[in-house]
Amino acid sequence: MKHTILFLTVLMSCFGMSQNNENTTDKSELYKNYREDQFYVSITYNLLNIKPNGVNQNGFSSGFHLGFIRDMPVNERRNVAIGLGLGLSSNSYNQNVSILETNNDISYNIIDESEVNVSKNKFTTYLVEVPFEFRWRTSTATDYSFWRIYSGFKVGYLFYNSTKFKSDNGDEKLTNVEDFNKLQYGLTLSVGYGTWNFHVYYGLNSIFDNSANLNGQSIDMKSLKIGLMFYIL
């Protein structure tokens, strides 16, 4: 009887050790492969920063952004990472500078609403973007609600732009105006917990190049985008 009890005790101990080793292996494999926040969708309110005198925004200027960021952890816990990705961005700006074509030349003028009734005046930009992020978070391989702070840099290539002007005197729409900067870049920050994340983009260079002039001066307006960021997988 004693031999039987001893045998069962040793057997249970071996079984327990086997289970612990299996759990450790499973956990190790889980940590080895887990990544976070590789797909993103963002909605922003777009502001024009450093506006020339007399330039104002009106209406709601919105932005919609989506893409993929490859999460590359740099520590064993995998809660610190760098991210590099590719995305698309659409941005509209409602403001009071008319962008019109006259004799194959583009002119920029502040709209005098006492002289003309304007129902819509905006320009829209479409970019392919390459975001780079330094990522810190409180995540684990099994915890899907965690704090995150992602700071970084984003470079965008403008592949299409359009302008719309609607007034009582007529309408005009232009596409691919050459005065827009093809390369646009700025700093980014995303901070939040779980689903909801505050996001800001601070443009470092002008939306327009030096050939765009208003009252004899370059239009050096930069983009400031404030909104929400949603990460998936």
UniProtKB/TrEMBL annotation:
InterPro entries: Beta-barrel_OMP_2. Residues 18-209 form the Outer membrane protein beta-barrel domain. It holds the Pfam family OMP_b-brl_2. This is Outer membrane beta-barrel protein. It comes from the Bacteria. It comes from Winogradskyella ouciana.
